[in-house]
Amino acid sequence: MKDWFDKELHDAAANALDYFTEKKLRLATAESCTGGLVAAALTEIAGCSHVFDRGYITYSNAAKQQELGVPPDTIRQYGAVSEQTARAMAEGALRNSKVDYTVSITGIAGPDGGSEDRPVGLVHIAAARKDKTLHEELRLGNLGRGEVRRRSALAAFALLKKLATS
Questions:
Q1: Contacts of residue 66, Cβ cutoff 8 Å, sequence gap at least 6
Q2: Phi-psi region for residue 164, left (φ > 0), alpha (ψ -120 to 50) or beta?
Q3: d(CA 39, CA 12)
Q4: Cα separation values, 111 from 81, 121, 152, Å
């Protein structure tokens, strides 16, 4: 196993792939602070192409707007790291692809870049399907860039499962 691809992340990705394969559902990701970690975890597993359609890595605000259709006013009013932006990212990925489910992540992985109201380790995750979008906010603290990214990816898989089974 790769250093970044530990057993916990492998199991979360494999469980998602098993569930979505069984249900014949397709998935896309829209990632910012994780830089494609969720997509990488999925594609590390053979056979993922039955489920995984595409991944958007939209690190900049411009990319969020251009690739996912996040309204500039949403970012201006709420910030790139917000519930509203995470929801817009997930819903934009759903609109721009022919999939059943999407998951998005936007946050501050650190070690700097945080502020009093948006500290390092603040992450917003959204999972969407045609009729519903769920959101979760994480406040992980300054655990180190890699650990914030890893825990965010794990939380994204958990939120996807929650949405898929609701």
A1: none
A2: alpha
A3: 12
A4: 16, 9, 15
Q: What percent of the chain has pLDDT over 70?
A: 98
- The pLDDT score that the predictor gives to residue 2 is 54
Token pair 């825990």 is found at 151
pLDDT digits (tens, 9 = 90+) for 34-85: 999 999 999 999 999 999 999 999 999 999 999 999 999 999 999 999 999 9
User: Cα angle at 52 between 47 and 54, to 5 degrees?
Assistant: 135
Sequence-distant (6+) residues with CB within 8 A of 33 are: 81, 105, 106, 107, 108, 109, 123, 148, 149, 152
The residues spanned by each domain of the chain are: 7-164
Q: Is the CB of residue 81 less than 8 Å from the CB of residue 106?
A: yes
The CATH superfamily label for domain 7-164 reads CinA-like (3.90.950.20)
